[in-house]
Amino acid sequence: MNISIPKERRPSEYRAGLTPTGVRLLTEDGHTCLVESGTGLGAGFSDEDYIAAGARIVYTGEEAYGRGDVVLKVARPTLEEMDWLIPGQTLVGYLHLPAAHLSKIHLLLDKRITAISYEQIQRADGTRPVLKPLSQIGGQMAAQMAAHILQNNAGGKGVLLGGVPGVPPAEVVIVGAGVVGEYAARAFLGMGAQVTLLDSNLDRLQTLAATLPGRVVTLVAHTFNIERTCAFADVVVGAVHNAHERTPVIIMRDVVENMRPGAVLLDLSIDEGGCAETSRPTTHDNPTYIEAGVIHCCIPNLSGVVARTATHAFLNAAWPFIQKIARHGVREAIATDPVLATGVYMDQGKIQEHAYPHIGELR
To answer: What are the residue numbers of the active site?
Structure first.
């Protein structure tokens, strides 16, 4: 099998679709790995590292896409990259297709692409093994991003997350107690902030209340609780995720307008559309904007700038699925692995109803 690893082209995206170690394992199994020159530089992998592992280096994105049976990506391809896909190809990555423009979905359908989304792969117990490591990283990064944005030199109101004796810590509200919310809470608590965690799942709140270090306030995510807690927050973190569809908007504009001037809103759900009505995507180069007096930070590829950690972390989780696809072929791998099959968004140009419940919108 020919397996292509093209360079990522989205802004501030330094992660790589496969490590040299992954290349070595695949080439030792008899597969051909085509790595675009410069693919691994942001994660600390040189072309020479890939060559030593058995890869063949190609020098354009068009060639990288055009020669692979399977394309291993990190982020969803740009429109230019989608034009380079060849009919019948298999595309694997964090594709977040429910949040993509319908024109891109139709382009993939027209090319009869088989699209496997890492973030959709789900075990029977509901856990998402390949999404989890990046959710852990994103949650931890939320605290360091918020700490910086609160500084005066970053446009913030000059608040230290942990406070000092005689000065109270920052008030942090986290909406969503999944993996992202849990790791965000751990990081904020570790920095001394006062944390309130909201979720609609009471069992989850009970578990985290018993296991999180430090004191955390837990509340059921009723609308009035979201409104009340956000009004007094220095930092609000949106960490909401709905499987197979766009993230629901649960932090409404009037809630944002009632927040403290200079407060920070970090929408970590933005790669699936965002959970705040006032959110729109930003980048690491231009991470914030102000709306209704609130500093918004909504970076879809938040972990893209800790590329070495993130690349190793997600590929540790993705490797069993990559190996199965390579060894058995795409068709057999999907047919025999029900966990992998949950990540199939479209199969040879046909949308899978389990992956996109609003399939009628595409017809």
So the answer is: 96, 271
